[in-house]
Amino acid sequence: MPPPLPARHSPLKGLLAFERSDAGGFSGRHEDIDALVALLTAESARAALLLGEPGVGKTSLLRAGVLPALERTGAIVLFADDASRPSESLARAFEAQRPTAKRGQEKGAEYLARVLGESSAGNHVWILDDVDLALARDPDGRLGRELADLLRRVASRARGRVRILLCCADCRMYRLNDLELRTGSLFPPAARYGLRRFNVEQATEVLASTLDGAGVLADPDLPGALAQELGRAGLILPADLQVVASMVVSEEILSAADVARRGGAFSFFARWVNSVAGATGDRVLALRLLGELAAPAEQPCVVSVDDAARQASVDLGFATQAFATFVARGLCVSAAGAPATDTENTRIASPWYTFSHELVASRVRALVAPVRLRAQRAARALGDAAHMRRRLSPFQLVRLKYAKVQPSNDDERA
């Protein structure tokens, strides 16, 4: 009996990264995969740096492209699932692949150094993604010291058998300055690889492959028409291709004429967010919640359900259900728990969320700004009227109803 066919994974990922299991549906990056594999398997290679803007597909390239390609060369590839604790994360990945277990209270770095010293089999490639975001949350420098120790002491015991690939957004490469000072010139230009946006031809190929993999029986000219439209603004971000492909499927778009009737490809992101918000049962309130998540200027934006509900003047039950919808539709993901400085037990128990991709925050911030502004004006008018003990005018009542702002205390209800 022939072996069973591998499961076919959907190439529609939205703004979530491709995983190793999605390698069959990952397209458009063959040259980049080959270049990175060559860089990491070169005899002189020790450390390399993958750079690119947010949304260009760095994580997807690593997980669905580079990782399986390196494994085909016979390398032992360890992908750190937590860049803020690289040694422990790499140690867990190694334990999952090899029978050698930790000894007692052995730390991750000690374990890696020991198993590398005891074995001479195989070359290793250790991949650390989103290092820049992890370093941004490292005010005391602990992570910087751990990374430097990992690079200098642990990897050096492997006698050249370990290559380390770090990944970060090019706009935040300055986060690595201290690490380079600790380890010397770790990433000379020859050890850096920049991932670029797609041109129209590449975008057409990726869209055609994605829609075909999703089973869309559309006009053969549709991928090219979409890519041409997106390409009018310059090179094309892969994240935008995923949003466009998802909307083509969900709205059953079959031709360029269908795209035009829906406002063009550039409207698809706003249509997607509005469709996710509408799926909660109340689009306006859902957009207000998303506005609270997008409000902080720092990255990544993280908020608890309790905080978002209170700040948006939304019922907690609705907020809980809305965030579940955001996650189910790929707009948000669960985030780490409450900050350690937060001592309110109810807030610690509240789920925390962040956007599925940092690219979303700035776009959602602009999209929901009118909704938030209307709600803020209506709430201010209601508060002023309560303070002055006067009734709202008919126009203000209409504005209050349209903005879906509810009284928050007895004075406002009166």
Structure description:
The protein is built from 19 helices and eight strands. The chain has helices at 30-41, 58-72, 86-97, 108-118, 131-136, 142-154, 177-183, 200-213, 222-231, 238-250, 256-261, 268-278, 283-294, 305-311, 316-328, 345-349, 358-388, 394-403, 410-413, and strands at 47-52, 76-80, 124-128, 162-169, 192-194, 302-304, 332-334, 352-355. The strands form two sheets. It has a five-stranded parallel β-sheet with strand order 2-3-4-1-5, sandwiched between helices. The protein has a three-stranded antiparallel β-sheet with strand order 6-8-7. Mean pLDDT is 83; it is low at 1-8, 337-347 and 410-414.
Alpha-beta content class: alpha/beta
Strand ordering within the main sheet? 2-3-4-1-5
How would you describe the shape? globular
The fraction of residues assigned to DSSP E strands is 5-15%
- Tell me, rounded to a whole number, the average pLDDT: 83
Run of helices and strands: HEHEHHEHHEHEHHHHHHEHHEHEHHH
